[in-house]
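Re: the request from the purification team.
They wanted to know what the chain is likely to look like in 3D before they choose a buffer screen. I agreed to run a prediction and write the result into the notebook, where they can find it.
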Amino acid sequence: MKRLFTLMLLLMVVVTNAQEDEEKKSFEISGSIDAYYRANLTAPNDENAIAPGSSFANLPGFALGMANVIASYEGEKVGFVADLVFGPRGTDAIFASPMYSATGNIVNQLYAYWNVSESVTLTLGNFNTFLGYEVISPVANFNYSTSYLFSYGPFSHTGFKADFALSDDLSLMLGVFNDTDLTEFNPTGDYAAGAQLGYAGQYLNVLYDPSFFEIDFTGGFDLSDEFFLGINAAYLAVEDDGPGFMGAALYPQYTISDDFTLGLRGEYFAEDGNFGAIGSGVADTSVITATLTGSYTVDNLIIKPELRLDSASDDAFIDNDLAATKSLGSFLIAAIYQF
């Protein structure tokens, strides 16, 4: 009896440990934190400090990005993601969400999914947009500052989507959502529709919102073992001939060593009418931006020094004498820790 009891006890310990190991594999806490220093090279850095009109990385001096904490569970058939953000970058990312809570919202993503089969996944909840080359999390972007194309496209959607793996290379997503960036609930009674067609890492995205229509191409190519070229192009039209935009960006990146990569974002962004993104207040204005970024990795820490030049077709910035000018040069260095 003692031997039988001992054997049963050992079996229970083995089963319990196996279950705990399985749970550890399925449930995960991950995320990142980021902070940076930013200074203008051709404009003031005092109370008159300005920044490009794109999102994030636009605060002067030593500044905070965000703390991003993600709880996720991945089962064989079902799973969920709860993605929370804290800090200035997080606040900017969910700018249209603090509607229901008087103290604001910290939810960046919150969704559940069901793998109906090996080729079909259904998702319900709030998830970051499928359009564009860049994303909200600084971990997944090469450049620390963001493009105009990303900043004025959608950030997030709340709704239902179905993802289909049609073959090893071909994929399709179809979805219906609340109005863009209204992620807590639907206050308008209107709905948007979206679709994504993907082939071998190249994606054609379409979003039809009650107030605008956007079509977007996102992709990239490995030109060699060290050289990658990313591509993004988009066109947004607002209903009733309202102001919109169009633009394109290239992202060449060259891996110099295992720890250091150098990349450039070259972007052209043009407003149709007075869209208000560039800051000149002039209709049909445009901007060309060159952003040179280095990415140095030490274990889980990424250090990114960055030089950026924005050159507009009209006076959109000021110089050190507070005179209107068409260009702005700036520098930043960011630290990003991923866990």
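For the purification team: DSSP finds three helices and 18 strands in the chain.
Please add any questions underneath this entry.
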